[in-house]
């Protein structure tokens, strides 16, 4: 390990930190929406910046209740699954975050509103 | 670079011997990438992140054979990937491989004595990822990939450290190949 090795490592860490910051800054300016999937099928899209407090469920499974908060957070409020992992995940609000109720096949995830929903099917190899 | 003169191969090697040795290294690189794909799922696994074990061989070729042979191995490997895994995987392999060799040559030429094999390896791994990143952004226009850049950079540091350590351990064994 020589001096420049450490400088290189620090430099790369710095770049990745800044690109992370830039990305965060960029997406926080975009409106967000939550997508609810039932067995990999998009069944409901909820804009997060409505500023309303709403409790709802999707027609595919009335036993699972979602809660949208005024501040744009969303979470699983109620579920009939045995482990309640979906509720324990808690409130989510940032793009990329997700909560899932696997016994009911429900996935709740947050995406940026300008995110184009194209399927990426690619194997990255070296 | 540390003094690895004892391991340097060219000079007293005939042209044929260099060619055979390059072929041999290419075969080892293929085996390593095969071994890598067999590995069970690792806890740190993120799509697109691999150890890049074959980078050990490419680095070895750069340091002890020459730039030409290293490029040759990368191109041969891309051709092999083209036949086994198709066009896109091959393009990714080629872009990552060529950029990583170029960056490693450049950094070891610029910093000479001030950088060790670890730094070179990290530069190689990170630039390999960046090369693939660029090509993916070109092929799949419009896909938001920027969130992935920090992941790739940090992963490059880790895999770079790993391959450098493994090359150091493997050097005596590779010397016996000649």
What does this structure look like?
- The complex is a heterodimer of chains A (126) and B (178).
- Chain A is α+β, with helices and mostly antiparallel strands and 126 residues long.
- Chain A folds into two domains: 1-30; 31-112, mini-chromosome maintenance (MCM) complex, domain 2.
- In chain A, 24% of the residues lie in helices and 34% in strands.
- Chain A has helices spanning 3-28, 85-88; strands at 32-38, 41-47, 54-58, 61-68, 74-78, 98-101, 106-112.
- In chain A, the strands form two sheets. A four-stranded antiparallel beta sheet of chain A has the order 2-1-7-6.
- In chain A, a hairpin with a 4-residue loop joins strand 6 and strand 7.
- Chain A is elongated, with a radius of gyration of 19 Å.
- Chain B is an all-alpha fold.
- Chain B has a single domain (5-177), classed as Arp2/3 complex 21 kDa subunit ARPC3, CATH 1.10.1760.20.
- In chain B, helix 1 packs across helix 3 and helix 4 (87-111) packs antiparallel against helix 5.
- Chain B is globular, with a radius of gyration of 16 Å.
- In chain B, 74% of the residues lie in helices and 0% in strands.
- The chains are: A alpha+beta (126), B mainly alpha (178).
- Chain A binds chain B through residues 1-5, 8-9, 12-13, 15-17, 19-20, 22-23, 26-27, 96, 112, 115-116, 118, 120, 122-126, and chain B through 33, 47-48, 50, 52, 54-55, 81, 85, 88-89, 92-93, 96-97, 107, 111, 114-116, 118-119, 122-123, 126, 128, 132, 136, 140, 142-144, 146-147, 149-150, 153-154, 156-157.
